[in-house]
Structures are given as C-alpha cells and as structure tokens.
Amino acid sequence: MIKFWRSSTARFITLVFGIELILAAGMTLTLRVLTRGELERDAKSYAARLTQELGPVYLKQGKEDFQKLAALRILFSEGRATVILMVDPKGKPVAGNLQGWPPSAKPGWSEIELYRNGSGTPEQMGILVTNLPDGSRLLTGQIIENDRRLSRIVDRATGTALIFGLPLALFAAFAAVRIINARVNDIGETAKAVSAGQLSQRVWLDGSGDTFDRLAATLNAMLERIEALISELRIVTDGLAHDLRSPLTRLKVRLERAQVEDDEESLRSAITLAGEETDRLLGMLTTALQISRAEAGIGRDHFIAADLGEMIRDIAELYEPLVEDKGFAMEVATGTGPIVAMHRELIGQAVGNLIDNALKYGADSIRIATGETGGMAWVDVSDRGPGIPEDQRAEALRRFGRLDPSRTGFGAGLGLSLVGAVARLHGGTIELGDAAPGLRVRLSIPLA
Amino acid sequence: MTQKILLVEDDNTTADFIVKGLSEQGFAVDHANNGRDGLFHATDGTYDAIVLDRMLPGMDGMAVLGAIRAAGITTPVIILSALGAVEDRVAGLTAGSDDYLTKPFAFAELLARLKLLMRRATTGPVSAVETVLTCHDLEMDLLSRKVKRAGRPLDLQPREFRLLEYLMRHKEQVVTRTMLLEGVWDYHFDPGTNVIDVHVSRLRKKIDGDADTTLIHTVRGAGYRLGAGE
C-alpha cells in the first residue's frame, strides 16, 4: 500500500483530484462573493432612488403629498419589501411603515434588524439614512431577509454538490490515470514482446498525433531499425558462413595436397594457390566488415567536403589502365563539382566496385559521369552489356541491398552490397537505369 | 652497424614470425609481450624503430605510444592493428605513430615499411633543394618535369610521373602495392591487386621497354623495387 502511494499513478491521481477540488472551491467562493455583492448593490441603488424621489417631495410639496407617495411606494415596490420612515426635526414620525426611529441609525448605508408596523418579529433590512436640510430625517430601504435566505440556500446547495462532487472528482482522476496507464501499458507490453523475441511487434497508434502517438511512432521507428539490423546481422552471418565455406574448403584441400607433394615445383604452386585463396578470404572479411560498419553508420564523422567530379576523375584514372587492359574503352564525363560531404575512401571503393561490376557484365566500353539533379549529387557507371530489363531491375537492386541471402558465388554479391551500404551511409540511393544499350548504375548522395 | 628493432606484441605466434623474419634480414630484435615492458624498453631510446601492437594486455598500445612520445622519444613507430578502418588509422597517426599496418599483413609489407621509416629517420626528410633524381641511367628533373633514360627523353603521363617519382625517391627499396596506393593516390582501400600492377607494367614498358638494364623489378610476394642491380 505504501508502495502504491509512492507510485506515479497515485501522485497523478492526487494531483488531478487536488486540482479539481481547488477548482470547485474557487468557483463556489467566487459565486458567493459575486451574488452577495450584486444583491447589496441592488438594494443600495433602490434606497438611493427612493430618497432622491421622496426627499424633494417632502420639502417642496409638504407633508400630505409625501404621505401619499410614501404609501404608494410601500404598496407598489417592484416586488421588494420596501421600508420608509420620515421623522420631523423633533423625532416625531411623519410617515412610514416602521414602528419607530431606530436609535442606532446613522446617516449612510447600514444593515440592521427592525420591526415593521404590525409585525411581531424583527426583520433584517438594508437602510439608507439621510438628514434633510430642515432637520428632519429620512430612512429608505428594503427587507433583505429573503436575500440572506437565498444565499444561505445557495451555500447549502453548493456544499451538497461538493460532497457529491468529491467522489466524482476522484472517479475522474482515476479515469484519467487509467487512460494514460492503458497507453503506457500498451507500449510496455510491446516492448516486453519485442525483448521476448517477437521483433515484429509494434505499438498501436490511434492516429491523433498527440504526445503518446508521437512517442509510440518514435518507438516503432526504433523497433523497425532494430528488426532491420538484427535480420541483417542474421543474413550477414549466414551469408558469410556460407560464402566462407567454399574458399576454406578449397584452402584445406590445397594444403592437404601440398602435404603429400614430393616435387618441389608442385609444392610451391600448391602453397601459392593456398596463399591466393587466403588473400581472397581476407578480402571478403574486410568487405564484410566495411559493410557492417557502414550500415551501422560508423564513419560519418569522417566525411569531408570534396569535389565529386575531381574525385571520380581520380578514381577513373586509377582504374583506367586496368579497364583498357581488359579490352574496354573508358569514357569519363565529369565537370567540376558538385561539392559533397563524403567518406572519400568508401565512395572511392564503391565506385571501384561498380567499375569491376561493369567489367564483369559489360562489353567494349564503360562510361563514368557525375552531375547533380534535384538536390542530389550522382555518379553514373554505365556499361554497354546486355543491361537488365525494366521488370527485373527491382530484383537486381536487391544485390545492392543488405546482403542478399539468395545470391550465388562470392565477390560480386559482397561488392555490390558494399555499394548499397555506402549509399545508405551517405543518406543516398542506388538506381538502375537503361544506358541504351547496357546497364546504368547511379549512386546518388544528397548535396550539403 | 646492426639496426635494433623493438617489437611489442602479445600474440606469441605473430611475434615469433616477425622476430624470425627480421632476424633473417639482419636486424637485432627485442620482444616485449605487454605494454609495460614495451614502454620500459622503448624509453631506452637506443632502437631504430618500434613495432607496436595496438591491442595489448596491461597497457593499451595507444597509451604506450602516447607515453613514448611524451617522453620525447622520436624513434619511428609503426602500429599493428586488427582495426583497419580509415578512422582508426587516422587516430593512430594523429597519436604520433609514423605508419599503420592492418592485421593480417604480409611480412614483406612490414619489412618494406620498416626499412622506409628507418631510412627516413637516418637521412632526414628529402631536402627541398633536390631537383634531380637519378637511378642508374634514369634521370628525373623535378622542375622541368622531364624524364630521360640514357639521355633519351621519355614521354610520361602526369600520374606515371608521380609513380616514377615515388619509386625513385625510394630506389633500392622494396615498395609494396599498398605503399604505392597510399603514396601516389592517397587511398587506403584495396582496389584489387591488379589495379596497381597495371599502372606499374605500363610505366615499366616506357622505362625499360628497349633498355639493356631492367630498372623496375617485381619482388615476389611483396611489390616492386627500382634499381639497377638484380
């Protein structure tokens, strides 16, 4: 129980409940003060009007007219219980409905208990006392007993309402907490399911875009990334294990053969072959490492602003002799710029891999171009080979994706995966197009 | 005089292989198998070069390097590391190492780089006033950017010129393909061994095409060497 009261839920309930209580009390108090004030103002202004009307009548038109008017005002009194009393300078009543001049009455506004004519009980009344120039005194006002009763009723009613309101406020507080708890629980349940291995679980969104929805969306994005990384990791591990098996087997066979080789020359050649196989294995491991680092976003802090055109010319120049040796022509169409923030080594490696790929599948010439379109800088590597029909490009693009488990043979698969990983590291894309004839691979990375 | 090399490496197989290789090359090698001993030896200051593994028990390789440099010892240091990425290489170089080699490496690569470092340390940086490089009957004028073989001018592409310049500055030394890629192209990735070979074979055609003496030699399993001798 102590634990419950220390929980956020309990604190939240207390807070909501407290706020509701303060709100209700505040409202009641305000209502009361306002009602009181309004009633008093009304009584005062009525008394003043009566004085202004009756005073001059008494002074100018005399006693009789005053008595008539006073009787009239007492009779027809706008739904109030009017009290009037006029006494002459000697204190003798002239007209009115009070049983006598109250000794405690002073000029100005006061609230006082007095007896009306023919009444046995005193009544609370608000009165305005005025001294007239000839020494006589005028008292006007109204019974306010009823007003008091009304405000007492209001007080009692609000009190009762508050008593009924308390459980309601408590209920509201619990309800609010329940709604919040339900959403938080939903998120918690999802997280629990995910940590239990159900990686595809997502938090439910109500589409309102409120804080909870945004939190849920952020969590979902995170889960999405985690799932992608994990499945990628699995594919990389599986793929790598698969890819490493055949060169390792060849290596083993070669070494076994070297063991039984008598002839020096064959022994040397077996060892050389084993060495080459080892180099290939190391190369694959390096590439796999580069891919996983790039996919993890490592290396972004090593981006430098460089002229893409110049950098690609450099790379092309590095590969040109090799390309020509393989009997291909090489065309380089790059200008100055655009200036892009990039990982120079990785972009170089990626373009190199694309050139290797073009050498493998293309025919007679390779074209390399750079440029910029719509906020993206791009490098095109085109070959004049058979190309890839449009309906098969999406499938072919998977080879640039996170390691494709279905690929056959090593090397090409890893190389293109690295190109894709480098593109993703830069927040860019890979597109396949038609070089008419041939395949055009475009590596785009965002400018600035 | 025998040159002394300090090897700080905790993996005994690798260490034995390096010690054996370097001894065969005529170097005196001391081996420390942890960072503390390595630092202790290094502060002797009598070594011509230090080969330092990056991951060491006790005291991390980078910390050892920092302590060596802090002690004012300028002995060339080459870092060995399984962390091959460019950023790790940059971290190693900024911490004060002179070169960085990724494991696994070929012994020939280590040897070539060590020789280069020690030579640089003894001769100092190539003097700025040097304007003509020569090797046997090959002559390179760095100002007019002209190359002559036995007095006959050769027509070289700018990149071929820089490749030859690198070879001539390191004549009679073995330079590996990665050293060429780093020195001439300033790249640290592996573009496939063929790429550099093709560049060298083109240069060789122009330099040695119809000469009696071959100047550019291929060193089996290591790289290339420029020089008149076999």
Q: How many angstroms does the end-to-end distance of chain B come to?
A: 24 Å
User: What percent of the residues of chain A sit in helical stretches (DSSP H or I)?
Assistant: 55-70%
Low-pLDDT residue intervals, each spanning 5 or more residues of chain B? none
The overall pLDDT average of chain B reads: 84
Q: Biggest sheet of chain A, open or closed, and with what strands and sense? A: 5 strands, antiparallel
Number of strands of chain B: 12
Strand order of the largest sheet of chain A: 2-1-5-4-3
Give the terminus-to-terminus CA distance of chain A: 58 Å
Low-confidence stretches of chain A: 402-412
Structure commentary:
The complex is a heterodimer of chains A (about 450) and B (about 230). In chain A, about 60% of the residues lie in helices and about 15% in strands. Chain A has 10 helices and 12 strands. In chain A, the strands form 3 sheets. Chain A has a 5-stranded antiparallel sheet with strand order 2-1-5-4-3. A 5-stranded mixed sheet of chain A has the order 7-9-10-12-11. In chain A, strands 6-8 form a two-stranded antiparallel sheet. In chain A, a hairpin with a 4-residue loop joins strand 11 and strand 12 (about 440-445). Residues about 400-410 of chain A have low confidence and may be disordered. With about 230 residues, chain B is α/β, with parallel strands linked by helices. Chain B is built from 8 helices and 12 strands. Chain B has helices at about 10-25, 35-40, 60-70, 85-95, 105-125, 160-170, 175-185, 195-210, and strands spanning about 5-10, 30, 50-55, 75-80, 100, 130-135, 140, 145-150, 150-155, 175, 215-220, 225. Chain B has a 5-stranded parallel sheet, with helices on both faces. In chain B, strands 6-7-8-9 form a 4-stranded antiparallel sheet, covered by helices on one side. Chain B has a 3-stranded antiparallel sheet with strand order 10-12-11. In chain B, a hairpin with a 4-residue loop joins strand 7 (about 140) and strand 8. The mean pLDDT of chain B is about 85.
